[in-house]
Design a protein that fits this description.
single chain; about 260 residues; alpha/beta; Rossmann fold; Helicase, Ruva Protein, domain 3; 2 domains; 5-stranded parallel beta sheet; 11 helices; 5 strands; about 50% helix; elongated; binds adenosine-5'-diphosphate; binds magnesium ion
Length: about 260
């Protein structure tokens, strides 16, 4: 193996297209190609939102100018600052209006360069109402013919709850694509584990016994981050015990170890 197959960083090289992950990625890509304006991705923590967004950005690298925003506990002024900084523009000392105009300039430049402009906001459930309103206003940047930017809002189910409130109905109506990620089925969990091992460079005999895989599928509840934690510890424990394959026993110890790690 070249590297640790069950790390917890959102590395898109490991992306496994489960039914819902595959569908979400396709709808987001398609929505952006189609200039839909507003798109959203909702899922519980650990389900793969950030990983999927990184993959999306990777796919857009040649055809779009992109900004990835993850510091969402900010005010509107900081929001503009993050966006401009991400575009390598020094926004120090600029007022809101100036930053707004600067962004408008970049959007036109991008349009003339025949590229799309995509703003991705991760952890959008944390956005303050006033900042979410600013994001909504950003989508008003458009010419008579076309939208100048596409906005992807990704977040936990709290984001969906928020968007369901009457005060956000205008924004909700503008969201053309709303994707959800759902936990892996048991069969997907098995494929996912194989997939990660393969990407990490493993090509030997199966490392996890089928009964161990079933147990992981059940106890992880199909949440990729849990699967990674359990697999990571199971492999470690089996290795320490000198076992070539992972049986149910190390998986049970791993579940204890990883739920302990989560509690801390
Ligand atoms: N479909 C997937 N394919 C490969 N790895 C995934 C997938 N979904 C989640 N993961 C892995 O699970 C962990 C949590 O994913 P992450 O993208 O951080 O979730 P979220 O942003 O929804 O909290 C990461 O290690 C990530 O690589
Ligand atoms: Mg995330």
């Amino acid at each position: 193996m070249r590297e640790q197959p069950f790390g917890v960083t959102p590395d898109p090289a490991y992306l496994y297209a489960s039914r819902t992950h595959g569908e979400a990625l396709a709808s987001l890509s398609f929505g952006i190609q189609d200039n839909r304006g507003f798109l959203a991705l909702i899922a519980e923590p650990g389900m793969g939102k950030t990983t999927l967004l990184y993959q999306l950005l990777e796919e857009l690298r040649d055809s779009a100018r992109t900004v990835f925003l993850f510091q969402t506990q900010c005010d509107s002024r900081e929001l503009f600052q993050y966006i401009l900084n991400d575009l390598n523009i020094d926004a120090r000392g600029m007022g809101l209006v100036e930053m707004h105009n600067k962004l408008n300039e970049v959007l036109f430049e991008t349009m003339f360069a025949r590229k799309r402009f995509v703003l991705v906001v991760d952890e959008a459930q944390n956005l303050d109402d006033s900042v979410l309103e600013t994001v909504r206003m950003l989508s008003n940047f458009e010419t008579h013919h076309t939208k100048l930017l596409q906005i992807v809002l990704a977040g936990q189910p709290g984001l969906a709850t928020k968007l369901a409130q009457p005060q956000w109905s205008q924004l909700r109506q503008r969201i053309a694509v709303l994707s959800h990620l759902e936990p892996f089925t048991a069969a997907e969990t098995a494929c996912y584990i194989d997939h990660r091992l393969k990407v990490a460079g493993y090509c030997g005999k199966p490392l996890f016994e089928p009964s161990a895989v079933s147990l992981i599928a059940e106890r992880s509840e199909g949440i990729p981050r849990n699967i990674n934690n359990i697999c990571y510890y199971s492999l470690l424990i089996a290795y320490v015990l000198g076992d070539g394959t992972v049986t149910e026993e190390p998986v049970l110890s791993a579940i204890e170890a990883s739920s302990f790690a989560r509690r801390r």
